[in-house]
Structure formats: structure tokens, C-alpha cells
Task: structure prediction
Amino acid sequence: QSVLTQPPSASGTPGQRVTISCSGSSSNIGSNTVNWYQQVPGTAPKLLIYTDNQRPSGVPDRFSGSRSGTSASLAISGLQSEDEAHYYCAAWDDSLNGPVFGGGTKLTVL
Amino acid sequence: QVQLQESGPGLVKPSETLSLTCTVSGGSISSYYWSWIRQPPGKGLEWIGYIYYSGTTNYNPSLKSRLTISVDTSKNQFSLKLSSVTAADTAVYYCARRMVGATGLDYWGQGTLVTVSS
Result:
């Protein structure tokens, strides 16, 4: 049972825009910024979005993030086949004094 | 380019101690927080703990009684020891670097699968 709640799956066709939600509580998303990771099966997670809406160098601007209250979301526009992966949200938790993760969302590009 | 590489046994017997080392290359271990994260097969990510280069640590309470994380700045390495392991500790173990001034983990090792079995 993950601390942050994500839908287990999402899908879209090439070129579409998809969003993935992430729900938490006052001790994590409600008071701290959110990071998003992309994980292709068999590889390590890759930082996709940090501090709610910042992209590391090299991450396309098709990826964007937002946070409001105790929820956050990741949006992917102009969906491409290579976007097929698992996506995890994460946020610092004040009770844990460490990061908590969502259970992950498997994105399928139809 | 910073690179992280986990090393250690891939098979550990139940009740024994799991030991892993993460070697950092292409950059200094100084001035950063370094984390261990694990992922059971087919499941999500779990934070294990972190260490600052100075030696300050913080552990996931669910593992704290069995966990030790240490750092060796002279070798640019940090290590994980998890005692009294059970099958529930079977997972891919990742080491990762936390960004300065943010909580994102920007560099990750490739991960190493540790199986707990007799």
C-alpha cells in the first residue's frame, strides 16, 4: 500500500495529451513539492519533473507537472510511443522525514 | 557525468545480512545526500534511507531496527547493511543522489537484484 495514490494504468494514442494524477496528504504533497519519475521496464527510474514543474536538462517540454492542495498531476502532450513506461510520483513526507512514492502508473501508447 | 554503481551479493540467505556498496564516479560524494531505494519484483518504489556525506543518516522507520547506512568519502562510496533478512527483502536495490536544494533524485545506479533464499 503506497502512501501516494496513483491510477494503476493510463493510455492514449500518439499525439494525444494524457494526465496522470497523484493524491497525498497534508504531511507530504500538502506541504512539500512533488517529483515525477519515468521507469522503462528493466531500467532505473529517471527524474522527469522536480519541484512540481521543473524539467531536468534533456527532458522534453512535452512533459509538465503541477500541484494543488494535496494532489499533483503529470501531463504528457504529443504522446509518443517511447513514452510507454511506468510513472511514479514522489514527495517528501514530514512525518517520515524522507520521500514517499506513489504506486506507479503504467502508461500504454495505443 | 556522474555515475553510480551498486555492487554486492545477488543472493542472501534468510536471517543473514544483506550488504551493498554504491560507488560514485565522475563527481564527488561531498555536499550531497545519498539514498537507497528498493523495488520488489513487479512492485513500486520504497525509500530505504539516506546519508549525507558528513555521515548524518535518516532511515525508513519500517527498516530502522535492521538498517545501517555508512559513507566512505575517501573511496567515494556509501554502503547499506540490512540484517535479519527475509523473502520480503527480495528486491532490486538502487542507490541515488539527491539534488542540491531540492528533493528530486537526479542520478541513479542501474540497480542490483538481491534475492533472499536458502
Observations:
- The longest strand of chain B covers residues 18-25.
- Chain B touches chain A at residues 35, 37, 44-47, 49-50, 58, 60-61, 94, 99, 102-106, 108-111 (CB under 8 Å).
- Chain B has a mean pLDDT of 97.
